[in-house]
């Protein structure tokens, strides 16, 4: 995004958009040329298919080794600033990860997108699929 101030200086800022706007006044500055924010919103959920009970247990063990315990087939996990909801459905062999949130200290290195990307890699590596 480009912010143009009255002094005609241009500065580039990165932010996490919450809505779509064309122009937005910020004090003496006007934000112009915003991208289509609907297409740039961060992912904070994902669905995985082909998750057999054995595969789910492998993923649970892998996370457990990292100190993240999945209790049962659904719940909420929170570790060092990363929080997410999960739900595994054995009948449909799907795993849902929802509401991924990253706060301090994890936010120093990760975004919700990066967390989802790491989960995607782990699921694919174990034989599951990203839906």
Q: Briefly, what is this?
A:
This protein has 131 residues and is of the alpha+beta class. The chain is built from two helices and nine strands, in the order E-E-E-E-E-H-E-E-E-H-E. The chain folds into two domains: 2-39, no CATH class; 46-130.
Task: Please tell me about this protein's structure.
With 131 residues, the protein is an alpha+beta fold. The chain has two domains: 2-39, no CATH class; 46-130. It has helices at residues 53-65, 112-126; strands spanning 2-5, 10-12, 24-26, 29-32, 46-49, 74-79, 82-89, 94-102, 129-130. Strands 6-7-8-5-9 form a five-stranded antiparallel β-sheet, covered by helices on one side. The chain has a four-stranded antiparallel β-sheet with strand order 2-1-4-3, with no helix packed on it. Strand 6 and strand 7 (82-89) form a beta hairpin. It is globular, with a radius of gyration of 19 Å.
List keywords for this structure.
alpha+beta, 4-stranded antiparallel β-sheet, 131 residues, 5-stranded antiparallel β-sheet, 21% helix
Q: What's the Cα radius of gyration?
A: 19 Å
Please give the largest β-sheet.
Answer: 5 strands, antiparallel
Count of individual domains: 2
Q: What's the N-to-C terminus distance?
A: 31 Å
How many strand units?
Answer: 9
| Model regions low in confidence, pLDDT < 50 over at least 5 residues | 1-6, 13-25, 29-41
Shape: globular
State the strand order across the main sheet: 6-7-8-5-9
The number of helical elements comes to 2
- Helix-strand pattern, N to C? EEEEEHEEEHE
Beta-strand content bin: 25-35%
The helix content is 10-25%
């Amino acid at each position: 995004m480009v912010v143009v101030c009255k002094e005609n200086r241009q500065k580039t800022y990165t932010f996490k958009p919450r809505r779509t706007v064309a122009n937005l006044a910020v004090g003496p500055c006007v934000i112009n040329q915003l991208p289509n924010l609907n297409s740039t919103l961060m992912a904070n959920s994902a669905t995985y298919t082909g998750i057999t009970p054995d595969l789910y247990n492998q993923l649970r063990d892998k996370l457990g080794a990292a100190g993240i315990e999945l209790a049962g087939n659904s719940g909420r996990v929170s570790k060092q600033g990363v929080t997410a909801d999960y739900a595994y459905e054995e009948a449909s062999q799907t795993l849902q990860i929802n509401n991924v949130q990253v706060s301090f200290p994890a936010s120093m290195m990760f975004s919700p997108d990066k967390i989802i990307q790491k989960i995607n890699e782990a699921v694919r590596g174990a034989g599951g699929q990203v839906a």
